[in-house]
Amino acid sequence: MFDWIKPKTNFLETDLHSHLIPNIDDGVKSWEESLDILEKLSEMGFKKIITTPHIIHDYYPNQPSEIRQQVDELNRRLLEKGLPIAVEAGAEYFVDEYFANQVKTQQELLTFGDDYILIETPFLNKPIFLEEVIFNLQSKGLKPILAHPERYSYLQTNIELVQNLTTIGLLMQVNISSLMGYYSKEAQKLAKYLIETKNVHFLASDIHNHKHLTQVQKAIKSKLFQRCRQLNLLNFSL
Ligand SMILES: [Fe+2]
Measuring CA to CA, which residue among 147, 40, 39 is closest to residue 90? Predict the structure, then answer.
């Protein structure tokens, strides 16, 4: 079917970025909220949700084992409700000096799919050691994915840096809500650029709460989201 006559529906089955474990980061506040959001995601056609609590040493010092335990509990509750959607454990690692050092040690990192690891940075400034961290992760056989590149002002104002990061193999995960300008006009503009230059490797919800869910529900009806059908998204490999 031609892309332009396809219905304006969700075409993704797997989401790889969300905050659906209660009270371990700034995501959902209760199991009820989590289950309700997952029910809506299931109705939208999602079959698998990789949930990715923040791991930020100074604020949310979550451990892979704890996240896995909580994901088991969430799946148990999903089964009890009979919802046809599965949750897998991941994490969103904040790139700071602690993480940079952690990558150099043998400590376990929480990965998903084909050795993917989701990372985020401060919004205003690129960590000076970002490229070194990417290299060290790749040396361990991992594939780093940058969460919502379009939201970082240091990338919005520096397209050359965006290109340099993709050249060294950093994979780009755009937030679905950015396509509608939910975060800012600048984020929407960079999201468009990344789509046009085919530098989007993953699309994800980054849902923390019901407000985010509503934005994602709207954004999947946008032209820009539908245009992403033409990308070779790696969501399908997860
Ligand atoms: Fe996130």
Answer: 147
How far away, in angstroms, is 52 Cα from ligand 1 center? 7
- How far does the centroid of ligand 1 lie from the alpha carbon of residue 158, in Å? 22
Cα–Cα distances (Å) from 64 to 53, 55, 61, 111, 112, in that order, read 10, 9, 10, 9, 12
CA 22 vs CA 19, 53, 70, 86, 172: distances in Å: 8, 9, 9, 17, 27
Reference 87, options 161, 5, 18, 175; nearest CA is: 18
User: What is the predicted pLDDT for the residue at 4?
Assistant: 56
Residues in the chain where the model's pLDDT stays below 70: 1-6
Cβ–Cβ < 8 Å for 84, 98? no
Note the pLDDT of residue 8: 79
Q: How many whole angstroms from 87 Cα to the centroid of ligand 1?
A: 16
Residue 167's identity, in one-letter code, is T
Residue 98 belongs to domain with CATH number: 3.20.20.140
Cα 4 to ligand 1 centroid, rounded to whole Å: 31
Model pTM score? 0.95
Using alpha carbons, list the distances in angstroms from residue 121 to 55, 99, 206, 209, 224: 12, 11, 15, 21, 25
Work out how many domains the chain is built from and give that number.
1
> How far from 82 is each of 42, 50, 86, 94, CA to CA, in Å?
11, 19, 11, 34
Range of the domain at 198: 3-237
Per-chain residues with Cβ under 5 A from ion ligand 1: 92, 206
The CA 5 to ligand 1 mean position distance, Å, reads 32
Nearest to 31 by CA among 63, 64, 78: 78
